Amino acid sequence: MTEIIGALERDAVEEILNIAIGQAAASLSRMVRDQIALSVPFIEFLSPAVAGERLDGTTGGTDSVAVRQHFSSSFSGDILLIFPEHRSLDLVRSMLGDTISMDSLTELEQEALLEVGNVILNACLGSLANQLGLAIESSLPIYLRGRGPQILAAKHPETELVMFLQVDFSLAAKGVKGYLAFVMDIVSARQFSEAVSAYVSRVVGG
Asked: What is residue 32's three-state secondary structure?
């Protein structure tokens, strides 16, 4: 899978997504009324099955919650924002305030995470579109809960791959670690790589 994208394109993807996530961090900071920093420590290209196992490995085999959104452009696929279930309430509590009871917090969790996901995923897709010079359309986000293979389920697992990113959400008072994932088929992955190559050529060519 990794041969789909070269070293230059991989560096470009990290740069593009760092800018996108930086913009998302600014929006999220306003929502939680706290300083927040997001980073992109690593990017991996994995099969859906391996990505699901990797997600379970990072969460200790517990359930995750996710916001999943379909997007389409010259390439298409799904983008997901994923949190370990046991830490998702920390982020929701930061948004709604520590005075909310745990019962009320749980009831509001899905709505709050959809709002967070909508902000971060649209910031990423919008920044990606601007930097690559493309128009990207997206659907309304949906909420998911389950183990890694359920969260990262692919319609055609033999021809799809996952661009899996770990993102550290660092709040001033509490740390919440989340993950971003793009699920695309092989054809879209190659078209995505071509779009990134064109971006690299423009940047290098001035």
From this structure: helix
Separation between Cα atoms, residue 84 and residue 4, nearest integer Å: 29
99 burial class (0-12, 13-18, 19+ CB within 10 angstroms)? exposed
The closest alpha carbon to 88, from 163, 165, 29, 144, belongs to: 144
Strands 142-146 and 64-72: antiparallel
What is the rounded CA–CA span in Å between residue 45 and residue 34?
33
What distances in angstroms separate CA 96 from CA 3, 66, 72, 122, one per listed residue?
44, 19, 33, 21
182/111 Cα distance (integer angstroms)? 22
The pLDDT, as a whole number, for residue 97 is 66
pLDDT in tens, 11-69: 888 888 888 888 777 777 777 777 777 776 678 888 888 989 988 888 888 899 999 99
Kindly report the CA angle at 97 between 92 and 103, in degrees rounded to 5?
65
Terminal Cα distance for the chain, rounded: 30
SS3 136: coil
The tens digit of pLDDT for each residue in 159-194 reads 888 888 877 767 666 667 778 889 988 888 888 888
138 by DSSP, 3-state: which?
strand
Pairing status of strand 142-146 against strand 175-185: unpaired
Neighbouring C-beta atoms of residue 34, cutoff 10 Å:
14
